[in-house]
């Protein structure tokens, strides 16, 4: 647009110079320069990663230009808007549902939609981050954080991040800004709350340790009782087996005994002495009848 205005001024200057001096070469030079400036004013380039928004005397046209070289009307302007993924990290102070202060570092990756860049430019402008993105980040973080207690925030960080991203995506969608990804870089609580959480964790760990030790003692006691039971069963089985073996041996011995066998064993073990009949007790006892003498007397 600037070159086009300069071209018109040069052309007017050439015409005035020709009328004043009646020299045609001055007008010709002015005409050439004006024509060159007009051509240059029609050429525009859009760098890679940007989208060109065309305006005509301030009116935003309903189309965009991709990266590259383009020809436009000399009275049109091209606003170059960055359509690459952009990253911003913000630090915010917010409160949980139980009124605990939380300091958070939140990162968002976002980009504008190329096909709708002219709508974003006409409704918001080029400073869309400060105008739209930043305020909505703060609102989404504060709204989502207020849904959880401080203790829940400690263990539900991923769920909180998803809730913030959902709110933020819905808010920026109406401005044709796409949320690519988000993350909670850091979350810090007051010292008093941090100390309370640590104390609770220590208490829970001690309780778990006591429960584990008690369960271990129960397991060991049950194992010892089981060992004793097995040992008792083994001893009882051994006694039973031995008794059954002895009974079986006695049965077999009893079945094998005959009168002749008994007399034979008795004869084999007899020392040749006949029994005697004693009278009295201890050292004062005396032999009354000696079976051997009786047998000898008969002979």
Q: How does the SSE layout of this entry go?
A:
Layout: H1 2-21, H2 24-42, E1 43-46, E2 50-56, E3 59-65, E4 68-71, E5 76-82, E6 86-95, E7 101-112, H3 117-123, H4 128-145, H5 150-155, H6 157-173, E8 177-189, H7 191-256, H8 259-269, E9 276-279, E10 286-290, H9 291-298
Antiparallel strand pairs: 1-4, 2-3, 2-5, 6-7, 7-8, 9-10
Helix pairs in contact: 1-2, 4-6
Give a structural overview.
By secondary structure, the chain is α+β, with helices and mostly antiparallel strands. It folds into three domains: 2-79, no CATH class; 86-189, Tetrahydropterin Synthase, Chain A (2-Layer Sandwich), CATH 3.30.479; 199-245. The protein is built from nine helices and ten strands. It has helices at 2-21, 24-42, 117-123, 128-145, 150-155, 157-173, 191-256, 259-269, 291-298, and strands spanning 43-46, 50-56, 59-65, 68-71, 76-82, 86-95, 101-112, 177-189, 276-279, 286-290. A hairpin with a 6-residue loop joins strand 9 (276-279) and strand 10 (286-290). The protein starts with a helix and ends with a helix. The model has no long low-confidence stretch (mean pLDDT 78).
Strand content: 15-25%
Strand order of the largest sheet: 3-2-5
Average of per-residue pLDDT values: 78
Q: Sheet with the most strands?
A: 3 strands, antiparallel
Give the N-terminus to C-terminus distance in angstroms.
172 Å
Number of helices: 9
């Amino acid at each position: 647009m600037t070159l086009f205005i300069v071209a018109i001024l040069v052309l007017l200057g050439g015409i005035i110079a020709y009328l004043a001096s009646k020299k045609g070469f001055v007008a010709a030079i002015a005409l050439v320069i004006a024509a060159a400036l007009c051509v240059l004013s029609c050429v525009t380039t859009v760098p890679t990663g940007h989208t060109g928004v065309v305006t005509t005397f301030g009116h935003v046209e309903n189309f965009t230009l991709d990266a590259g070289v383009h020809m436009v009307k000399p009275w049109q302007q091209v606003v170059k808007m960055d359509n690459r993924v952009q990253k911003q990290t913000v630090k915010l102070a917010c409160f949980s549902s139980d009124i605990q202060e939380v300091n958070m570092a939140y990162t968002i990756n976002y980009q504008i939609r190329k096909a709708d860049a002219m709508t974003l430019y006409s409704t918001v402008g080029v400073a869309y981050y400060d105008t739209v993105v930043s305020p909505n980040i703060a609102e989404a973080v504060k709204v989502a954080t207020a849904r959880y207690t401080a203790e829940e925030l400690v263990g539900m960080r991923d769920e909180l991040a998803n809730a913030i991203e959902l709110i933020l995506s819905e808010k920026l969608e109406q401005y044709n800004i796409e949320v690519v990804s988000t993350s909670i870089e850091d979350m810090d609580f007051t010292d008093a709350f941090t100390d309370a959480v640590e104390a609770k964790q220590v208490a829970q760990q001690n309780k778990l340790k006591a429960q584990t030790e008690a369960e271990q003692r129960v397991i060991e006691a049950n194992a010892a009782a089981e060992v004793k039971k097995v040992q008792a069963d083994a001893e009882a089985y051994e006694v039973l087996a031995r008794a059954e073996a002895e009974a079986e041996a006695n049965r077999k011995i009893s079945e094998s005994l005959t009168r002749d066998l008994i007399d034979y064993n008795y004869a084999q073990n007899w020392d040749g002495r006949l029994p005697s009949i004693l009278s009295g007790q201890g050292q004062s006892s005396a032999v009354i009848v000696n079976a051997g003498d009786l047998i000898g007397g008969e002979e």
